[in-house]
Amino acid sequence: MKIELTDRQFRYLLDLVYIGNWVINSTRENDRIEEYDQVESLVFSHCLQHKMSKLVELYRGEVIPSRAFADGGIHEAIENYEDVVFYEILAEELALRDMDGEPLTWENYSELMDRIDAYLSEFDQHGTDNISVDMDE
């Protein structure tokens, strides 16, 4: 298979590959899915042919994204995504809890969405400042 990309498109592909592998493997510790690491290594190895060698380094015989790449802003993009997902999941879980375990139906869907929107609005204004957890139970 051959894919032709401009240098700019290739640079975007590096970000996508890194983020994808980060999502899949970053929490797996010693149980990484090596096939994804191998694909990442293969894609990043092309940096050497495209005058992007500062974006890679050699680690245990494998080409990996360099510290310069990882520190270049990609983790800010990941963190922004994680923040949004955190608040969306939290809002949905709290809204479902507020509905006392009612199964979701067409009839109560708008109620759920209204509750989610209210929580998201609260989180936009105050973050987690107004959240409390009763741990005495």
User: Strand content of the residues, in percent?
Assistant: 5-15%
What is the spatial order of strands in the main beta sheet?
1-2
The low-confidence runs, each spanning 5 or more residues with pLDDT under 50, are none
Count the helices. How many? Answer: 4
Distance between the termini: 59 Å
**Average pLDDT value?**
95
Main pleated-sheet profile: 2 strands, antiparallel
What is the CA-based Rg, rounded? 21 Å
SSE string? HHEEHH
Helix content: 55-70%
Which term fits the overall shape? elongated
Number of strand segments = 2
Structure class: mainly alpha
Structure, described:
This protein has 137 residues and is mainly α. Helix content is 59%, strand content 6%. The protein has four helices and two strands. It has helices at 7-25, 34-45, 67-98, 109-126, and strands at 56-59, 62-65. A two-stranded antiparallel sheet has the order 1-2. A hairpin with a 2-residue loop joins β1 (56-59) and β2. The longest helix is centred in the middle third of the chain and has 32 residues, at 67-98. The radius of gyration is 21 Å and the shape is elongated. The model has no long low-confidence stretch (mean pLDDT 95).
